Amino acid sequence: MTTAATLPILSWAVPLAVLMLVLAMACTLVRVLLGPAAQDRVLALDCMYLNGMLAMLVLGLHYNSPHYFEAALLVALLGFVSSTAMAKFLLRGEVIE
Description:
By secondary structure, the protein is mostly helical. Helices cover 80% and strands 0% of the residues.
C-alpha cells in the first residue's frame, strides 16, 4: 500500500496545498470580521467551511485515513444546511415557517 508521503510529488504538494487552504481561510476570516453586509459574511463563512473541508480531504490523502473523508462529508453536510438556513433567514427574516 502506497501512502501519500512515499510518492515524491506528494511529499511537497500536500503541505503546500494545506498551507494555501489555510491562507484562504485566513483571508475569508478577514471578510467575516470586516464584511460590510450580512450577505458578505454568510458568503465568507460558506467559503471558509469549503476550504476547511478541502483541507481535511488533503490531510486524508496525506495520512491515508478514511476518517478524514467521513469528517469532511459531515462538514460539507452541516455547512450546506447552515448556508441554506442563513440564506433563508436573510431573505425572509425567519428560518422555520
